[in-house]
Automatic annotation (TrEMBL):
It comes from Herbidospora solisilvae. GO terms for molecular function: catalytic activity. It comes from the Bacteria. Gene3D superfamilies: Amidase signature (AS) domain. Belongs to the amidase family. Residues 25-417 form the Amidase domain. This is Amidase. It holds the Pfam family Amidase.
C-alpha cells in the first residue's frame, strides 16, 4: 500500500502510532511525483535528498501533529538553503538563510518539505502553465497553481501557497481542492505582501486537514463552530456586463440550500460589487507589479510583466493605484456591502479554466482580459483583508470540479471551516483527479 493519496491526518496518525515511518511515507510520495509530475508540471524543484534525510532524522515522535506529512511550498516562500524565484528569471540566485516562519512551524510539527511548486512570474497571473490534473489541456490556475495541482494529483496531501487577489482560491477551485485565505494578520504574509492583501494559507483535500494545517501554521487552535447563522448566496455579485457560468451559479445556490437544511437562515444577496471596486482592484494589481519589479533587471522579465510594471508605475505617479478605494473598502465599505449576514456564498471562479499554453508570450492586454474574466470573484476579499475559502462542490458538465467560495468578516475562519465541514459531509467530493 502506498501512502501517496492519503490525508495528512491519516499519515500523521500512522507515523505517530508507529504503523508507518516517515521515510516510507516520503519515499511513496517521491515516487508519486516521479510518476505524475511530467504530465502536470507542479514542481519547480524536488528536494528528494533533503526530504529523505529529514524523514530519517524525524524518527518516532508521537508528539508531532504533522509527523511525517509531506508538504510542498510555493516558490515565493523561503525554505532554508533554497532559492525562491517567485516565478521569474530575474530573481536573486541567493538561497534563503532560514525558513519563513510558517514553513518553520510546519517543520517543527513534523512535516517534511518535498519541494517548491511553480508559480507564474511575480505571482501576477491567474493563469499559469502548470497543467490541471483534471484536464491537462487546461491551466491549474494561479498563482498557487503548482501547489494546488500537486495536492489534486495526490503528490502531497498538503501544500503551502498564498493569495494576493485569489491566488489560493482560484487554483483551488480549478483543481478541485480546498484552499483557505486567512484574514489579515492571522499568519505572517509572504515576502511580497501586496500592500497587506496577500496571505499565506493551506491547500488540502479535506476540511480536517485544513483545520490541522491552519492550527499548526498559526500556532493557535482553530475551532470550527457555527450555529444559527444568517447566510447569503450571491450567484453573480459582479457588476453588470460580467458573467458567471450558469452551472457555477447553480452550485452556489445548491450550497446555500444544503446549509438551509442544516438549520441556518439562508437568503439571497442581491447586491453587486460597485464598479469602482473592480477598477481599484485592477489598479492595485498593476501597482503590485510595479512594486515587485522595482529592483529587478527588467530585461529578464517577461514582456507582459514589463508592460504591467510600467502601467503600474504610471498609476502610482498619478495617485490612481487603487490604494484609496482599498483603504475605504477595508475600513467600512466591505462591512456595509456585506450587510447583516454572517457568511456569504459565491462561485469561486467565473468560467472554466482556460488553456495552459502560451500565456507568458502573449501581451499584457490579452493576459489581463483572460485573468479578469476567469477570476473576478476573489479580489474583493483581499482588498478587505477578510477570510475566504473555496471548497469543491459538485461537478461541471465538462467533467471538471466546481468550487464555491465562502466568505466571512474578520476572525471568521472558524465559521468557514464549520460550514465547509458540513458541506463536505453532505456532498462528499472526489479528493483527487480521476487519473490520479
Amino acid at each position: 500500500m502506498s501512502w501517496a493519496g492519503r490525508t495528512a491526518v491519516e499519515i500523521a496518525d500512522a507515523v505517530r502510532a508507529g504503523e508507518a515511518t516517515a521515510e516510507q511515507v516520503v519515499a511513496d510520495h517521491l515516487a508519486a511525483i516521479s510518476a505524475r509530475d511530467d504530465a502536470v508540471g507542479a514542481f519547480r524543484t524536488v528536494l528528494a535528498e533533503s526530504a529523505m534525510a529529514d524523514a530519517k532524522a524525524l524518527g518516532h515522535r508521537p508528539d508531532l501533529p504533522l509527523a511525517g506529512v509531506p508538504v510542498a511550498v510555493k516558490d515565493n516562500v523561503a525554505v532554508a538553503g533554497q532559492t525562491a524565484t517567485n516565478g521569474t528569471r530575474a530573481a536573486s540566485p541567493e538561497p534563503a538563510q532560514e525558513d519563513h516562519p510558517v514553513v518553520a512551524r510546519l517543520r517543527a510539527a513534523g512535516a517534511i518539505v518535498l519541494g517548491l511548486t511553480k508559480c507564474p512570474e511575480l505571482c501576477l497571473y491567474a493563469i499559469g502553465d502548470t497543467r490541471n490534473p483534471w484536464d491537462a489541456k487546461r491551466t491549474a490556475g494561479g498563482s498557487s497553481g503548482g501547489s494546488a495541482a500537486a495536492v489534486a494529483a495526490g503528490m502531497v496531501p498538503l501544500a503551502l501557497g498564498n493569495d494576493g487577489l485569489g491566488s489560493l482560491r482560484i487554483p483551488g477551485a480549478a483543481c478541485g481542492v480546498i484552499a483557505l485565505k486567512p484574514g489579515h494578520g492571522l499568519l505572517e504574509p509572504p515576502p511580497h505582501d501586496w500592500f497587506a492583501m496577500s496571505e499565506n494559507g493551506p491547500l488540502t483535500t479535506t476540511v480536517n486537514d485544513t483545520v490541522l494545517a491552519l492550527t499548526v501554521m498559526t500556532g493557535t487552535p482553530i475551532l470550527p463552530e457555527a450555529e444559527d447563522l444568517r447566510i447569503a448566496v450571491a450567484p453573480n455579485p459582479l457588476p453588470p456586463g460580467f458573467s458567471v457560468d450558469a452551472e457555477f451559479q447553480e452550485a452556489a445556490r445548491a450550497a446555500g440550500a444544503t446549509l438551509r437544511e442544516a438549520g441556518h437562515t439562508v437568503v439571497d444577496h442581491g447586491r453587486r460589487f460597485p464598479m469602482s471596486l473592480g477598477w481599484s482592484t485592477i489598479a492595485a494589481w498593476y501597482s503590485c507589479a510595479a512594486t515587485d519589479a522595482h529592483d529587478l533587471d527588467e530585461r529578464s522579465l517577461e514582456p507582459r510583466t514589463r508592460s504591467m510594471a510600467r502601467v503600474g508605475r504610471f498609476l502610482q505617479r498619478i495617485h490612481r493605484d487603487g490604494s484609496r478605494r482599498r483603504d475605504q473598502w477595508r475600513a467600512y465599505g466591505a462591512d456595509q456591502w456585506f450587510g447583516d449576514i454572517d457568511v456569504l456564498i459565491t462561485p469561486t471562479i467565473a468560467r472554466l479554466p482556460p488553456s495552459a499554453d502560451g500565456w507568458e508570450s502573449r501581451g499584457m492586454a490579452r493576459n489581463a482580459y483572460a485573468d479578469i474574466t476567469f477570476a473576478p470573484l476573489t479580489g474583493a476579499w483581499n482588498m478587505a483583508g477578510w477570510p475566504a475559502m473555496t471548497i469543491p462542490f459538485g461537478r461541471h458538465s465538462s467533467g471538471l470540479p466546481i468550487g464555491v467560495q465562502l466568505i466571512a468578516p474578520p476572525d471568521g475562519e472558524g465559521l468557514l471551516l464549520s460550514l465547509a465541514g458540513y458541506l463536505e459531509r453532505a456532498r462528499p467530493w472526489a479528493r483527487h483527479a480521476p487519473t490520479f
